[in-house]
Amino acid sequence: MSSLPIATAKEVFDLVRDDLSAVEREFGRQSKSEVVVIQDIARYLLSGGGKRIRPLLLLLSAKALGFTGESRIRLGAVVEMLHTATLVHDDIIDEAQTRRGKPSANTAWGASKCVLAGDWLYMQSFQTALDERNFKILDLLIGLTQQMVEGELLQMQKLGHLINEEEYFDLIFRKTAMLFKVSMQLGAALAGVDETVEQQLGEYGRNLGLAFQIVDDVLDLTGEEATLGKPAASDLREGKATLAVIHALERGTGAEREAIRTVLADRSFTRVKHSTILDILRGHGSLDYAMDAARAYAEAARQSIADLPQANAEAGRALRALLWVPGYVTDRDR
Fold first, then answer.
1. CA distance 72 to 74
2. CB-side exposure of 32: number of CA atoms within 13 Å?
3. In whole angstroms, what is the distance from residue 121 CA to residue 78 CA?
4. Which InterPro entries would you find in this protein's record (predicted)?
5. Which residue did the predictor score with more confidence, 27 or 311?
6. C-alpha to C-alpha distance for 95 and 114, rounded to whole angstroms
7. Which of 1, 7, 64, 101 is the most exposed place for a label (fewest CB within 10 A)?
8. Radius of gyration of the chain (CA)
9. 98-99 and 102-103 as β-strands: parallel, antiparallel, unpaired?
10. Which of 84, 86, 87, 54 is nearest to 72 (CA)?
11. Is 217 a residue whose pLDDT tops 60?
């Protein structure tokens, strides 16, 4: 384990506050279009808040390697634009009514306009990245986009069906962890470090992304709608089996398995109540099992950068901040 102390939340905020504000301004600049509806949708999505964890990772990755050029702000906007585009498309596919406590963009503007706005954000993010004139960056972004699209298609094929843990981890790597991984690798690409260091940072991002999604999936099952900003147990309503559910299916009685299968097939809690599913999950320790897995991945993220060299004091502060992020990911309530 790294001998560096883990940063406090205040230290992390102080370190990246100005950079994250610059990323938001850059996102606003990059999403300007003569077609007003594109600009309106982009502004609406940006104003919805969000954790900005992906640009945060890119900024900290670059800073931990001693890179402080303006490119990190542009690429921070790129990863947030890519993330936003995936959210737009996900909400259309899932027919989601809300996002972060507000009407989803597709509810406000309709699916057709939002599909095209999401496509535009994808292309604009690549246009911005192209300005860096760095093939490594483009290679990372192209691979990322392919993985995310494949992940969404795989998930659509599996909706309403039972999947095993291997399939679950493959899905969440493609849909979530890959973007965390690439956000870290983009910081390394800007710093021009050797492949070994890039792989270390990529491994951090992968492990952190897996932890992040597992926690998201647990919160979806256990959280309140007011806190989540969307209906509770949305995944089950959409026919998605997540880690705790898979764990309970492997250990439950025949009647318990049938209850879970019924919800996945119905995509509703009409015949089986949400509280019944929660009782089954708690009875088999399935929620604790999933959270233990998330914490293990969070710790693996920390371990992967334990021996990262520090170019200067600022790099040391960024590395300490990266050691803080996994705890934030596993301890959050939304």
1. 6
2. 6
3. 9
4. Isoprenoid_synthase_dom_sf (IPR008949), Polyprenyl_synt (IPR000092), Polyprenyl_synt_CS (IPR033749)
5. 27
6. 12
7. 1
8. 20
9. antiparallel
10. 54
11. yes
Q: Any idea what the Cα angle at residue 52 is, between residues 240 and 16, rounded to 5°?
A: 150
Distance between CA atoms of 277 and 288, rounded to whole angstroms? 15
290 near 241, Cβ under 8 Å? no
User: In the predicted model, what is the mean pLDDT of the chain?
Assistant: 94
Query: What is d(CA 121, CA 282) in angstroms, rounded to the nearest whole number?
Result: 41
- Token reading at 154: 């795989």
Query: Facing residues of 98 across strands?
Result: 103
Report helix, strand or coil for 309: coil
Q: Residue 98 has what DSSP assignment?
A: E
Looking at residue 1, what is its pLDDT? 52
Say if residue 104's pLDDT is above 80: yes
Element (H or E) spanning 156, and its range?
Answer: helix 135-158
Q: Write out the H or E segment, with its range, that includes residue 102.
A: strand 102-103
Tokens of 218: 């647990």
- CB of 150 closer than 8 Å to CB of 178: no
Q: Token pair 């996994």 is at which residue?
A: 326
Distance from the first to the final alpha carbon of the chain: 28
Give the pLDDT confidence of 237-253 residue by residue, as tens digits.
Answer: 999 999 999 999 999 99
- 229, 256 contact by CB (below 8 A): no
Q: What is the pLDDT of residues 145-194, one digit of tens each?
A: 999 999 999 999 999 989 999 999 999 999 999 999 999 999 999 999 99
Query: Which residue type occupies 248?
Result: A
Q: Per-domain residue ranges for the chain? A: 9-320
- The architecture (CATH level 2) of 9-320 comes to Orthogonal Bundle (1.10)
Instruction: Give me 61's structure tokens.
Output: 């990755």
Residue 54 clears pLDDT 60, i.e. is over it: yes
Angle at alpha carbon of residue 227, lines to 225 and 233, rounded to 5°:
40
Task: Return d(Cα 235, Cα 242) in angstroms, integer.
Answer: 8
Output the six-digit token pair for 232: 């509770």
pLDDT of 275 reads 95
Q: Please, which residues bridge with residue 102 across strands?
A: 99
In the predicted model, is pLDDT for residue 229 greater than 80?
Answer: no
* C-alpha–C-alpha distance, residues 215 and 180, integer Å: 15
